[in-house]
Specification:
Strand content: 25-35%
Number of domains: 2
CATH topology of the largest domain: Ribosomal Protein S5, domain 2
Number of helices: 10
Oligomer: single chain
């Protein structure tokens, strides 16, 4: 049996935007917006969970908590299990807004379990950790970005997933418009068409290939590269306000996309364009410039009083 650490462990895990327009279930972008998870092995059996911040009124405080479920899978993969532990979640990532809160919980929980085991890095390396994460979320776009940070593209291969990371061009500033309303990912996915035409598939393949080049090398191509015909318009009835904002932003020449399953909207802007986005969005949207989360889920020092 692996050796468990007795001291508290802190893991920080970023928010993520997935799809990025044409790259459905493939592309992900980490933001410098981090949830913090602290856990410590307990001599008592059972789990004690404390939550503050986003979702404090909704998330469970038992073994059904998504972080705890991920930790359980991580411990099982390392063939160890503490008798009990204390978990404290400080949530910053908005829930059910298309910013990867579920992926953050899954990856954060797995990295936390790994960090609680002395030999964890060897028993649960990143490649295996990503495979384990697929047991809780079947598409790897947000998962890869939450694990590795930066701009990633991920794909399923055999029974697992693989991913690569790219460096975002320095002149691109992500701008996020977050609404007050929520849309569960399951509801957004249920609105998707079961089939797509060859013409639409070809359109998205071309834009996906171009998007990698635009995000890493030539941002002047971002407007064309962020076109989509597969998933965004299919969800118009689920979040009409998001699609209206998307239409307005693109009509103004801004390379805007729905973030993940929505309803948040992501703009690949330039420094200083936040006010332009806010004007088009109106008061019901919280608009902010974000920095890219160049660090994925990572262990951080625990500050003691």
């Amino acid at each position: 049996m692996a050796t468990l650490r007795t001291e508290p462990v802190l893991v920080r895990v970023p928010a993520t935007c997935a799809n990025l327009g044409p790259g459905f279930d493939t592309f992900g972008l980490a933001l410098q917006m981090y949830d913090s998870l602290v856990a410590m092995v307990s001599v008592d059996s059972g789990i004690l969970i404390e939550v503050e911040g986003e979702g404090v009124q909704e998330v469970p405080r038992d073994a059904s908590h998504l972080v705890v479920r991920a930790m359980a899978l991580g411990f099982a993969a390392m063939q160890t299990l503490p008798a009990g532990f204390v978990l404290r979640c400080t949530n910053v990532i908005p829930h059910s807004r298309g910013l990867g809160s579920s992926a953050a919980a899954i990856i954060g929980g797995l990295v936390l379990a790994r960090a609680m085991v002395v030999e964890g890095d060897e028993l649960l390396p990143d490649a295996l950790l990503l495979q384990v994460a697929l047991g809780l979320e079947s598409h790897p776009d947000n998962l890869a970005a939450a694990l590795h940070g930066g701009f990633t593209n991920a794909w399923l291969e055999g029974d697992g997933a693989r991913s690569v990371r790219h460096e975002l061009h320095s002149k691109i500033t992500p701008i996020i418009a977050v609404p007050e309303f929520q849309v569960p990912t399951s509801e957004a996915r249920s609105a998707l068409e079961p089939m797509v035409s060859r013409q639409d598939a070809s359109f998205n393949i071309a834009r996906s290939a171009l998007l990698v080049h635009a995000l890493t090398t030539d941002p002047t191509l971002l407007f064309a590269a962020t076109g989509d015909r597969i998933h965004q318009d299919s969800r118009r009835s689920i979040y009409p306000a998001s699609m209206e904002l998307l239409d307005a932003l693109r009509a103004a020449g801004l390379p805007a996309v729905i973030s993940g399953a929505g309803p948040s909207v992501l703009v690949f802007g330039a420094a200083g364009e936040r006010d332009k986005v806010q004007t088009l969005a109106g008061a019901m949207w919280n608009v902010s410039e974000q920095k890219v989360g160049t660090q994925g889920a990572h262990v951080a020092p625990v500050l003691t009083p």
